[in-house]
Amino acid sequence: MSDFRKEVAKKLLDIKAVFLRPSEPFTWASGIKSPIYCDNRLILGNVEERIYIEEALGKMIQENYPDVEVLMGTSTAGIPHAAYVSALLDLPMGYVRSTAKDHGRQNQIEGADPKGKKVVVIEDLISTGGSVLEVCNILKEYGAEVLGIASIFTYNLAKGKKRLADNNTINHSLSNFEALAEVALEQNYINKDEYLKVLKFQQNPDDSSWMD
């Protein structure tokens, strides 16, 4: 089985799609102080890295979900990646809106019709898992067979892993928080003390003592 974790982590750091800043924490929308900030939209603007990541996503999906019939992107971050990978794998794709349209056919699911099909959901980033699980549940209610999720990066937070497990939903990510921290340490992006701090944050983001 292919292991893209460190190479993808390196590419995300190189294009600044992921920032590690333990000494000047970011503030998430929830108010949590975090040493990490991820903006995978920057992948789209970096051709070499984008091609590598989309090809890696395709390989990961083929290895872990060989029976997939349709790719469905999350709105909006997962849509371009689902489109690129669908072209590589010669599969139909669509996406799920956060809410149904209030006009026209009032669709919430756009593009390929996933009813009765084996579906993989494409997501760029998983933190607590809430938004991607909502997409999975919408597809299941519609009549799709959701095989699982293929994501670019996961924080591997305990809350997110528990939500996925409770929902009986599999996620395969190209890279994760631990791999990113290791690469950042190896490349002197952070020092050993900062490395230990970011790992402490990951264990419990609600505990601000990691900043001490």
Helix content range? 25-40%
Number of strands: 10
Radius of gyration: 17 Å
- Kindly report the spatial arrangement of strands forming the biggest sheet: 7-6-5-8-9-10
Average pLDDT: 94
Question: Which residues sit in consecutive blocks of at least 5 with pLDDT less than 50?
Answer: none
Elements, N to C (H/E): HEEEEHEHEEEHEHEHH
Basic shape: globular
β-sheet strand percentage: 15-25%
Sheet bearing the most strands, described? 6 strands, mixed
Structural class determined from secondary elements: alpha/beta
Helix tally?
7
Q: Distance N terminus to C terminus?
A: 39 Å
Q: What does this molecule look like?
A:
Strand 5 (70-74), helix 3 and strand 6 (93-96) form a beta-alpha-beta unit. This protein has helices at residues 5-14, 47-64, 78-89, 130-142, 158-166, 177-186, 192-203; strands at 18-20, 26-27, 33-34, 36-38, 70-74, 93-96, 109-111, 118-126, 145-154, 171-176. The chain is built from seven helices and ten strands. The relative contact order is 0.17. The protein has 212 residues and is of the alpha/beta class. The strands form three sheets. It has a six-stranded mixed beta sheet with strand order 7-6-5-8-9-10, with helices on both faces. The protein has a two-stranded antiparallel ribbon with strand order 1-4. The chain has a two-stranded antiparallel ribbon with strand order 2-3. Helix 2 (47-64) crosses helix 3 (78-89). It is globular and about 50 Å long. The N and C termini lie far apart (39 Å).
